[in-house]
Design brief:
The chain is an alpha/beta fold. Helix content is 43%, strand content 14%. It is built from 17 helices and 14 strands. Helix 17 (418-423) links the parallel strand 13 (408-411) and strand 14 (427-429).
């Protein structure tokens, strides 16, 4: 079986590589010649654990290739996946569908014979209908079906999510298209993965509803954590206590500096705008968006408070700048607001991240980037942990204390134990628990 993946970004590259691992012949298309040249040379444009080896093995097997020539790639394939970006549109927060529509026109012009056109990009409800209109206009004689197949990949564990998903959602009522999609996902059928066939609109809504619900869980536990601090309760124990309820579940109940990344911020905002436009506003999701934006900005204030209410002229050490570990993605990362807020307060920033510094340098100014975590520390007035990379979980606390100007740690991910930090002589501030003075 042969498929084309239009867009070699995060979703397209991971999906294409995983489909090729299933035994499908995949050609990934992207208009960015530099990116395609890098991929053809075996260089990954993004960091995702296991992706480089997966791409390499399938390129060597002849099942995966890369090109900028959409027309040549689309001719003769059974399915074409649209996996281009849908960023928030400036000014109104709606998803920018210009890339999706432009690619749809190119595919319609290039396709040869019956083709299943699959939207894998995250798109508002009704986008599939608009894509079909484009195909009718460009190729009124065309033989095709337009399908929605949303992705549910978590950065940092995307390959595992693709290979062993909780479910696969496919939006189409066409029996012929369903048969093609069953063939594409055949290995998952053999593993008895739940496959849900719905209408296109329903599939599109499932993606937005899922991301908005998870964003709501994160925002809920963040607000509960703040209340726990005020009432001298333990926010982490509260999260465990409610997470053990099977109706609630443990996942996405980790208090922190707010959600970021390429999905939750833009998808919640897009759903809010879609709902408002339809006359059925989603007040809960509107609140989630507002609370999360405010929370990321408030994290800098926590650091300032830990530094005796002023960071002017002080050096602050930052560990972790990506929005989550195991990725180099800086999109909507809480660190952007934290660093900017501290700089506005007059602080000098030294920072280290295992994978994200190359991307961070493009969006952060005035930061001194360091080679190791310990290089950020000499003379620092506070150490701030923003991203919970594993290498930050077992720092040599004696060495940390010796290097710092003041033994102050602001742990926005709760990866250390307050009692142990106090015993080690630190003023330790975390999320959801009152600060403990050094013993």
């Amino acid at each position: 079986m042969r498929v084309a993946m239009i867009g070699a970004g995060y979703v397209g590259l991971v999906s294409g590589a995983c489909f090729s691992e299933f035994g499908v012949d995949v050609i990934c298309v992207d208009e960015d010649r530099v990116k395609i040249n890098r991929l053809q040379a075996g260089e990954m444009p993004i960091y995702e654990p296991g992706l480089e080896d997966l791409v390499s093995s399938n390129v060597d097997a002849g099942r995966l290739s890369f090109t900028t020539d959409l027309k040549a790639a689309v001719g003769g394939v059974e399915a074409v996946f649209i996996a281009v970006g849908t960023p928030s549109r400036r000014g109104d927060g709606h998803a920018d569908l210009s890339y999706v529509y432009a690619v749809a026109e190119e595919i319609a012009d290039a396709m040869n014979g019956y083709t299943v056109v699959v939207t894998k990009s995250t798109v508002p409800v009704g986008t599939g209908r608009e894509v079909e209109k484009i195909f009718r206009r460009v190729r009124p004689d065309g033989n095709y079906d337009v399908v929605s197949n949303p992705e549910f990949l978590r950065e940092g564990s995307a390959i595992e999510d693709f290979m062993r998903p909780d479910r696969v959602v496919i939006g189409t009522k066409s029996k012929r298209a369903q048969d093609v999609m069953r063939q594409v996902y055949r290995p998952l059928y053999l593993n008895e993965t739940p496959v849900l066939f719905t209408s296109r609109q329903t599939a599109e809504m499932i993606k937005y509803a899922a991301n908005s619900f998870l964003a709501t869980k994160i925002t809920f536990i963040n607000e509960i954590a703040d209340l726990c601090e005020a009432l001298e309760a333990d926010g982490q124990d509260v999260a465990k206590g409610i997470g053990l309820d099977g109706r609630i579940g443990r996942k996405f109940l980790h208090a922190g500096p707010g959600y970021g990344g390429s999905c939750f911020p833009k998808d919640t905002l897009a759903l809010v705008r879609t709902a408002q436009q339809s006359g059925h506003p989603l007040k809960i999701v509107e609140t989630v968006v507002g609370v999360n934006d405010a929370r990321k900005k408030a994290m800098a204030e926590r650091v300032v408070a830990a530094c005796d209410s002023s960071v002017k002229g002080k050096t602050i050490a930052i560990l972790g700048v990506t929005f989550k570990p195991n990725t180099d993605d800086m999109r909507e990362a809480p660190s952007l607001d934290v660093v900017a807020g501290l700089q506005q307060g007059g602080a000098t920033i030294r920072a280290y991240d295992p994978e994200g510094m190359a991307q961070a340098k493009q969006v952060m100014e005035g930061v001194k980037w360091c080679e190791t975590a310990y290089d950020t520390l000499p003379g620092a007035a506070a150490l701030v942990i923003i991203t919970e990379w594993n290498e930050f979980r077992a720092l040599d606390l004696h060495r940390v204390k010796q290097l710092m100007g003041q033994p102050v740690m602001v742990d926005l991910r709760n990866i250390y134990n307050p009692e142990e930090m106090a015993a080690a002589g630190f003023r330790y501030y975390c999320i959801g628990r009152a600060a403990l003075p050094p013993f």
